[in-house]
Amino acid sequence: MKPAPNQGFRSDTNYISCHVLQSGDFMPEGLSARELAVLLMDVMNSRNLARLEEVISDNAALDFPGFERIEGRQKIITFLKVLFRKYPRLEFQVHDVIAAGDQACVLWNNSGTNSKGILYANQGITHLRQCNSMIVLISDYFKDTSFIKNV
């Protein structure tokens, strides 16, 4: 299921807002911010980007340490494909999901190997915001950002 082109939010470097969809507008399955956060982490472990495409807004934004803000579903999916190539094995262990309203934060550890076979491990938080059951913002925070020069 593909989302409608206009997902009812505006995204720029400092602002994300959402409006309620009108009757007859596209409405996804009704996933909460917590459910979308869990789904996002499942996608990161399974690498099933097709599932993520179903729940990420056309105009979603990704804030990832060391990079300019990435805007747009396809650009985010492309970024994740590149990340998966650079880290052919990367597994996330979720420790907690904290949700309030249209937002959720996932506390996680991850470990794996990069494309050169070098072991990698990190801890972080992924902040997610949803609008009308679609992901509109993903923002990652890491304890160790030294890997960024290799992405």
Task: Briefly note the CATH topology name.
Answer: Nuclear Transport Factor 2, Chain: A
Low-confidence blocks of residues: 1-17, 19-28
Helical percentage: 10-25%
* CATH class descriptor: Alpha Beta
Element pattern in H and E: EEHHEEHEEEE
Shape: globular
Number of domains: 1
User: Which structural class should the secondary elements be placed in?
Assistant: alpha+beta
Which architecture does the CATH hierarchy give at level 2?
Roll
Radius of gyration: 15 Å
The N- to C-terminal Cα distance equals 31 Å
**Percent strand:** 35-45%
Count of beta strands: 8
Determine the number of helices (DSSP H or I, runs of at least 4 residues): 3
Question: What is the multimeric organization of the chains shown?
Answer: single chain
Nearest-integer average pLDDT: 84
| Largest sheet composition | 6 strands, mixed
